[in-house]
Specification:
heterodimer; A: 170 residues; alpha/beta; Beta Polymerase, domain 2; 5-stranded mixed beta sheet; B: 396 residues; alpha+beta; Cytochrome-c3 Hydrogenase, chain B; 2 domains
């Protein structure tokens, strides 16, 4: 893999600078992943974008993952790419159910839609997002469909006779 | 042109464009705020076609999900198939046969041509040039015929499977591809004769929806629309997958980042795709088109009747699927619309724990507001068409 020699930059640059903020680092299938603390997320993202060796100027995606019953429950995954340096990196943050995490829309405006999607599907709150509303589901929807405890066929109501009864689940 | 009405004070009005609108390319609802006819803001309201594909994926076996990917970007289903199977194969850590790689390259490029043809055709129609749609459809038919030869389907192909492809690429397909390569360049010239020098087309597209390279990058644009802004980034070239590193092709880029550049980039990409198809078809080596692993690939149909071993394998494949080792992987391809990525979290079972589709239309749509601001209402249609949105994939 051509990108192999660059991986040390992705790991060491960050690790020396953010010793305490990076909880763990892994390399799997040639993909570098850093699990970072929530409080340092914005600081690390800013560094990733501005550091001349890293130049992560392109936000690929923001992804929510539900690890119920683990605590904290959610993980938010950021895929970043550098159009100048041609390398990718993945950041992860753990978020509890009643917690929120800072939005990165200030650094990459491209995070607008994917953060809204993560909110829509998991109910993860991004502080500082300019317009954190549902994006796929109707605005008055009840519940967060991609959560692991949300039934596959939804809840039963007048429009959805095949859904599960809400009481049955309790 | 100095326009005295520039500062004309009127009440801001809100116009609802869609969700049922002939130029919206599907179910898109735009909330357009206007001062007179000038756009103040455009707010896309999406989700009318949301089917919960990611939730469905979490409840299906890995091989059962392939047909669902066809229904994402239904205009170029091959690309969706490819991105998904590549992600699963990355997790499984398997190397697909050489022949399959070539077949997949041909299939992906054919689907790029099919996608771009519809983009240019529908775009022309939106701006009042009906002829081009009919011409584009005529050539799209050639591509769809090849798909039909390959797998019997024209739209929802499900041609690729984890570990290979469903059917072999036979000589008939090869001839049809070479025939397409022969016919197509002259047809593309024909489109260019109709559009590229056309005064109306130029008026409607030139200097409309301009995005600078920096703006395009920060807003998350990818694919032809990003390259039209002068950013040379093509995943096929810069993170080559399959056998794209052995192919000789040029990544076209634009200069100004207006709608016309986005059109020109797509036209040139079609020409380059034809070059890739020609190279891949002629260089395609003989050999198997599936991995030799009975767990991943079901045995040939006829053999399941008289061979006990194969009957068992077939039963296991259909009813249990295969286990994927735990871990997470992200695979991305250059789809006709941009970066199409699939992120899979596996917990070691037969079903993905989490599957996230990074859809190019969804991300590209964010740039619409920036493109349209300050322009006229009629330019919204041009800007929207220049992004080539498909709502099957945007809303997943």
């Amino acid at each position: 893999m051509a990108a192999d020699h660059r991986n040390p930059i992705l790991i060491d640059n960050l690790k020396t600078r953010f010793k305490d903020e990076i909880v763990s680092t892994s390399r799997f299938k040639d993909e570098v992943t850093h699990l970072v603390t929530k409080s340092a997320l914005v600081k690390i993202c800013e560094f990733l974008k501005t550091d001349p060796a890293l130049q992560m100027n392109y936000l690929v995606d923001v992804i929510g993952v539900d690890y119920r019953p683990a605590l904290p429950r959610f993980e938010v995954v950021y895929h970043l790419y550098s159009i100048g340096q041609r390398h990718r990196i993945r950041l992860k943050v753990k978020v509890g159910e009643d917690e929120s995490l800072p939005s990165v829309t200030g650094i990459w405006p491209a995070a607008d839609f994917p953060e809204r999607e993560a909110y829509d599907m998991y109910g993860i709150i991004f502080d500082g997002h300019p317009n954190l509303t549902r994006i796929y589901m109707p605005h008055d929807w009840d519940g967060f469909p991609l959560r692991k405890d949300y039934p596959l066929r939804g809840y039963k109501d007048e429009y959805n006779p095949f859904g599960q009864e809400k009481e049955e689940l309790l | 042109m100095a326009e005295p009405e520039e500062n004309l004070a009127t009440n801001e009005i809100t116009l609802h464009f869609g969700p049922q609108h002939p130029s919206a390319h599907g179910l898109l609802h735009l909330i357009v705020k206007m001062q007179g006819e000038k756009i103040v803001n455009v707010n896309p309201d999406i989700g009318y076609l949301h089917r919960g594909t990611e939730k469905i994926a979490e409840n299906l076996l890995y091989h059962q999900f392939v047909p669902y990917t066809d229904r994402l970007d239904y205009l170029c289903a091959m690309s969706n198939n490819l991105a998904y199977v590549m992600a699963v194969e990355k997790l499984l850590d398997i190397e697909i046969p050489e022949r399959t790689k070539y077949i997949r390259v041909v299939a992906a490029e054919l689907s790029r041509i099919a996608g771009h043809l519809l983009c240019v055709g529908a775009w022309g129609m939106d701006l009042g040039a009906m002829t081009i749609l009919l011409y584009a459809m005529r050539e799209r038919e050639l591509v769809l015929d090849i798909f039909e030869m390959l797998c019997g389907a024209r739209m929802t192909l499900s041609y690729m499977r984890v570990g290979g492809v469903r059917y072999d690429f036979n000589e008939e397909c090869q001839e049809a591809c070479l025939n397409l390569v022969k016919i197509m360049p002259a047809r593309i010239d024909e489109y260019e004769r109709i559009l590229t020098g056309n005064r109306v087309w130029l008026k409607r597209n030139k200097a409309v929806g301009v995005l600078s390279a920096d703006e395009a990058i920060t807003i998350g644009l990818s694919g032809p629309a990003l390259r039209a802004s002068g950013v040379n980034w093509d995943i096929r070239k810069h993170e080559p997958y399959l056998v794209y590193d052995r192919m000789d092709f040029v990544v076209p880029t634009g200069e100004t980042g207006d709608c016309l550049d986005r059109y020109l980039v797509r036209i040139e990409e079609m020409r380059q795709s034809l070059r890739i198809i020609e190279q891949a078809v002629t260089a395609m080596p003989p050999g198997p088109f599936n991995v030799d692993d009975a767990q991943l690939v079901p045995p040939p149909h006829a053999q399941t009747y008289d061979n006990m071993e194969n009957l068992i394998h077939h039963f296991k494949y259909v009813s249990h699927g295969f286990k994927v080792p735990p871990g997470e992987a992200y695979a991305s391809i250059e789809s006709p619309k941009g970066e199409l990525g699939v992120y899979i979290v596996s917990d070691g079972t037969e079903k993905p724990f989490r599957l996230k589709l990074r859809m190019p239309t969804f991300m590209n749509l964010q740039s619409l507001a920036q493109m349209c601001k300050g322009g006229y209402l009629a330019d919204v249609v041009a800007c929207l068409s220049s992004l080539d949105p498909v709502f099957g994939e945007c809303d997943k």
